[in-house]
Specification:
Oligomer: single chain
Number of strands: 19
Largest sheet: 7 strands, mixed
Strand content: 15-25%
Structural class: alpha/beta
Strand order of the largest sheet: 14-15-16-11-10-17-18
């Protein structure tokens, strides 16, 4: 045990006592699956305190064009050109540099003391980190906004409180799973003609080893926190490797984590920041390092598949992408259906791993409260709903945000050349950031038989297809087939026919995808609520993990036992007591 861990176990700062009730409430929420939100999502000073918004923005601005200070670190720097805001300016932040091998060595050394701490101590430290991140939500929001292109309110909610809740959810599962077995047991096996065979046994949860978190560009905290905190609470040090274009949100997270670790008596290198220049290949080197035992990744299917195939020494948790699918059969609220889908396609310019891509409509059309709408009429109606939603250009960017990178722009340009485009994407000027690229969704009308190669590709970004099938039955079959083959994180069905809903549920179960039904109000298929909604299923190719369930944490630790005979004197004393 290191001097840091000894101080922590001695109670220098007892964060577990401070947060015990919050932890217990979080565990209860994972079991009830009811609504619970410990971190307020409103970006309001009435919630976060007078002056909190201005202070958070000032804290973000103070980081720009400076060397980012990481507590307890004195290494070199990564170049200034790593991050450029999608809103049109370079962040200019310079980060401490560390070679992959050195990062792993630092984490491994610090992890000795961290492993020796109890699950209670580790969970308390993790919750303290999350509560401090919550207090810094405005600062984090600006960092998320200007690395991902998310609109501000979304960056605050998804990058701040919602991400923190996903982190707390992982803490709750990790803490509960390590408590499944007793810490010790008195074992006695009767035997004929003699004293029982008596053993004293202990059971200790032990982390697998160094974990690597490979961050994504679009949701660095929301997708990053579950793996980070699941690994920490199960006793593993973590090397945080952000996406080169979205370092700052995770760098702030590492800064807070290291501050708390030191206060708790642990070595700060339990969490190591491993920033890299774009194209350096650090992620591959870290993920395949022989001493790395856990890898968390969110991003492209191509790299996720590579990790699963090549990081064989590690437990690999991936969230990739797929063909998010909607089956449209019938509705008694056509206007609500259109509004809901228009928002789902427009939110963050479709740059979400949960945004619907393929909207399947039978050739006979959709039966609605406004009459039957043919596939072509539906596509036109949906385009009109998108335009109504985004008609006020000054407000539209609050929904669209900004395009995050060249890959999205290239796919959008390619989709514009498809012959079936019925609603073209258009540029929307940003009132505050004239260099930002904001684009409305593109909608194309395709045929299930003739255009299969088009709609079975992933078109991450504001590109969606109305795919004409022969019937609703074929649409349901196509949902099952394509999701099973290519993966998806979300599926949605609209129908007033219970038989169709039953068939869609069965198809979703067979394909291993989470299903929503008849969403017309304020819940959207591409949104997921911590403590209630599962995100990813590990049952189709889009993900190898679920946020969050017991499987997400159980593979990060082992229960190691020790046993020894109980002396006769000890047995007599135990019996007398």
């Amino acid at each position: 045990m290191t001097e840091y861990a000894a101080e922590a176990e001695a109670g220098s700062v007892d964060f577990f006592v401070r947060h015990r009730e919050l932890l217990r409430r979080a565990v209860d929420a994972t079991r009830s699956r009811e609504f619970w939100s410990p971190f307020p999502e409103s970006p309001s000073e009435r919630v976060y305190g007078a002056g909190s918004a201005a202070a958070g923005e000032a804290a973000f601005r103070a980081l720009l064009n400076e060397r980012f200070a990481v507590p307890g670190w004195g290494g070199g720097e990564v170049g200034e050109a790593t991050e450029v805001s999608p809103y049109g300016f370079a962040l200019g932040v310079r980060y401490p540099a560390v070679e992959p091998g050195r990062a792993v060595a630092l984490a491994r050394e610090a992890g000795v003391g961290w492993r020796a701490a109890s699950p209670d101590v580790r969970a308390g430290v993790a919750v303290e980190i999350l509560t401090r991140l919550n207090a810094a939500s405005f600062e984090v929001a600006h960092a998320v906004r200007h690395t991902t292109g998310q609109p501000f309110v979304m960056a605050f909610q998804a990058g701040g409180p919602h991400a923190q809740e996903r982190g707390l959810e992982a803490v709750a599962y990790a803490w509960a799973e390590q408590s499944r077995h007793p810490g010790s047991a008195a074992w006695a096996k009767p035997r004929r003609g003699g004293e029982p065979l008596a053993l004293e046994k202990t059971f200790t949860p032990v982390g697998r080893g160094v974990a690597v978190l490979i961050g994504c560009n679009t949701f660095p905290t929301w997708n990053g926190y579950p793996g980070l905190f699941a690994s920490l609470v199960t006793g593993n040090p973590v090397v945080v490797k952000p996406h080169p274009r979205a370092v700052l949100p995770l760098a702030i997270t590492v800064r807070v984590a290291r501050e708390v670790l030191v206060e708790a008596g642990f070595a700060p290198d339990v969490v190591v920041l491993a920033a890299e220049p774009d194209g350096a290949g650090t992620a591959r080197e870290l993920a395949t390092h022989p001493e790395v035992r856990i890898v968390d990744f969110t991003g492209s299917t191509e790299f996720g598949d590579w990790l699963e195939a090549n990081a064989r020494q590690a437990q690999v948790y991936t969230e990739k992408a797929g063909l998010n699918t909607v089956v449209l059969d019938s509705t008694d609220d056509y206007a609500g259906l259109l509004r809901n889908l228009a928002f789902s396609l427009s939110l963050y310019s479709g740059q979400m791993c949960t945004t619907p891509q393929n909207l399947l409509v039978g050739r006979g059309g959709i039966v609605t409260d406004r009459g039957v709408r043919s596939p072509a009429e539906f596509a036109t109606d949906l385009g009109a709903a998108v335009e109504r939603l985004l008609a006020d250009e000054a407000r539209a960017t609050g929904t669209l945000g900004a395009i995050v990178g060249d890959g999205v722009r290239a796919r959008l340009a390619e989709a514009a050349r498809l012959p079936g485009v019925c609603h073209a994407s258009r540029a929307v000027p940003h009132p505050d950031f004239p260099e930002a690229v904001a684009r409305t969704p593109l909608i194309a009308l395709l045929d299930a038989a003739a255009d299969r190669e088009v709609f079975t590709r992933e078109w991450f970004g504001p590109v969606s297809f109305v795919v004409v099938t022969e019937s609703t039955a074929q649409s349901v079959g196509l949902l099952r087939e394509t999701v099973g083959a290519f993966g998806a994180l979300t599926a949605l069905v609209h129908s007033t026919d219970e038989a169709v809903l039953d068939a869609a549920r069965e198809a979703a179960l067979a394909a291993g995808v989470h299903l929503s039904e008849n969403l017309t109000d304020g819940v959207f298929v591409n949104q997921s609520s911590a403590f209630s909604d599962f995100h990813g299923s590990a049952a189709n190719p889009a993900a190898s993990a679920t946020l969050t369930d017991p499987a997400f944490v159980a593979g990060r630790f082992a229960v190691v036992q020790s046993r020894r005979p109980v002396s006769a004197g000890a047995s007599d004393a135990a019996g007398a007591s």
